[in-house]
Amino acid sequence: MCGIVGYTGPQSAITPLVEGLRRLEYRGYDSAGIALGTPGSLFIEKRAGKLGNLEGALPANLPVVHSGIGHTRWATHGGPTDRNAHPHVDNEGKLAVIHNGIIENYSELKIELEKRGHKFTSDTDTESVAHLLSDLRKENKGDLTAAMREAVKKLRGSFTLLAIHADAPETIVGVRRNSPLVVGIGDGENFMASDVAAFIDYTKRAIELGQDEVVTITPGGIEITDLSGKKVAPREYEITWDSAAAQKGGFSHFMLKEIFEQPKAVADTLIGRLSDNNQIQLDEIHMSDKEIKAIKKIVVIACGTAYHAGMVAKYAIEKWAKISVEVEIASEYRYRDPIIDAGTLVIAISQSGETMDTLMAIRHAKAAGARVLAICNTNSSTIPRESDAVLYTHAGPEIAVASTKAFLTQVVAVYLIGLKLAQVRGELKDSEIHNLYNEMLELPAKIEQILETVEPLRELTRGFAQSASVLFLGRNVGYPVALEGALKLKELAYMHAEGFAGGELKHGPIALIDQGTPVIAILPAGHDHALDEKMLSNIQEVKARGARVIVIAQEGDKVVGAEHIIRIPVASALLQPVLATVPLQVFAYEMAVTRGNDVDQPRNLAKSVTVE
Ligand code: AGP
């Protein structure tokens, strides 16, 4: 997510702006910029890279002004370059905008605005807002607040926006839709930011803004209205966090914060992916229908958690698109002389986009003639750059080493690809695509529902803290979920954990079951699932040998033999991994906390493994 700061008051604005952006660095970013409210014209400076690049570019004789906006950008539309950095300005250079989120209809707006003579200078979705606001401000007799209200009615997507105009530089206008925006109430000065970490050193008095609320701040005033212009009473509160806690949004660890960000991450990854006539929109994969129909085989290449997302891809793509899918551990792939030809589509999944094992594997595949499509969470990183196309997930920066929200969005991304391939190849009708996409749109709310049970689950976990090992059982798409649950426990709790396909139990692993061995079984989705009975038998088999069984089961599923049942909302079988994984993330998180481990930076691990 991007970092946003606004200031207006008696201080020299550059200080609270830059210090505020520094407090937001933890969110991850790849460029930074500011707009200072110099009367008559704005002072704009922005640079790719870290905040130091921006500071280094500021002139020694910087004008002392008392208002401005600042931004750290996590690139989504358009790479991390100077010209794509925020703020973005209108053609007169007098109105500046910064943005966090996704403007879904920016390209339609851009076409309309170019027709009206606006000249664009960046590849971003945000720039459309700068030109739109400029026109609307003129139509509203210079009233930037009214212009913002009108602009929001024309925008689709999730966003937080701040704007400033040189004709009234001490006035800053903000709005939020699905992305956070808070106001800091100072004494003769006021702030706005993505989160309170940016201004907590100046004030502990804050106002949380509601959906589609427009806020206007000046040194002495704060006014909030809805989109009709009706005043909204400010909901003021006292910030009780210290600065470190504020960076984690009040959560004790980034990992827990990122677990709770999963509904929004999944929602953002799904935004705008189905057209009004039920066509899956994945233009960025840069494949014509003819090329899609010519695919003979898909090879998914990844490591760790991303590999587990690739395993889910196999079930979904083979079921929906009827294309054979192989899933490969990247570090093994190129050393076994794989069969590759022009009919092979390689899908490389990587959160960081820098994993050397995956990078070396796709280089090998490209050299052998395969087309490579990356699924990545980090804009313009190496793997997308070396691929033929990239589908970016919109999980936002993932700070914790243990991958959570990135995994769920990787799974959602492979679902989208599976639906796209199935639609083009005529394997699924438009009505089926419509139904599946709309069921996916329900996933964020279902994840929220699971997150409401976090505390009882954390308490349950503490009862297993002294276990020597934990086994995970899953069948069909529950098998990669079992593997992911085991990996989370290994990397966070430093304990032995292993995931098995339920049917494999009797071929050896059942010998591991001892009195009190914890076994977590993921019951397949769908009450009439053919594998339900088989998994219920597995539960009986391990229970008969002394296991303590925790079952992840859908609401309404019949379960026997479980010591604990963790209920998750109903979803169709192939979509269940997005839901069943969440309790396992929480289980591993709590086990790590109980064992006193460094949750966000587990021992021996790096967030991005850039060596083979
Ligand atoms: C997952 O929790 C781990 N941090 C690790 O397995 C990770 O998924 C793997 O290293 C791949 O990283 P990538 O997605 O950045 O390529």
* Model regions low in confidence, pLDDT < 50 over at least 5 residues: none
CATH architecture of the largest domain, please? Answer: 4-Layer Sandwich
Which fold name fills CATH's third level, the topology of the largest domain?
Answer: Glutamine Phosphoribosylpyrophosphate, subunit 1, domain 1
The Cα radius of gyration reads 25 Å
**Strand order in the largest sheet:** 3-2-4-1-10-9-11-14
Q: Helix content range of the residues, please? A: 25-40%
Taking the alpha carbons of the first and last residues, their distance comes to 29 Å
Bound small molecules, deduplicated:
2-deoxy-2-amino glucitol-6-phosphate
Tally of strands: 24
Name the CATH homologous superfamily of the largest domain: Aminohydrolase, N-terminal nucleophile (Ntn) domain
Number of domains: 3
Mean of the pLDDT scores? 94
Catalytic activity: D-fructose 6-phosphate + L-glutamine = D-glucosamine 6-phosphate + L-glutamate
Keywords: Aminotransferase, Cytoplasm, Glutamine amidotransferase, Repeat, Transferase
Domain SIS: 288-427, 460-602
Pfam families: GATase_6, SIS
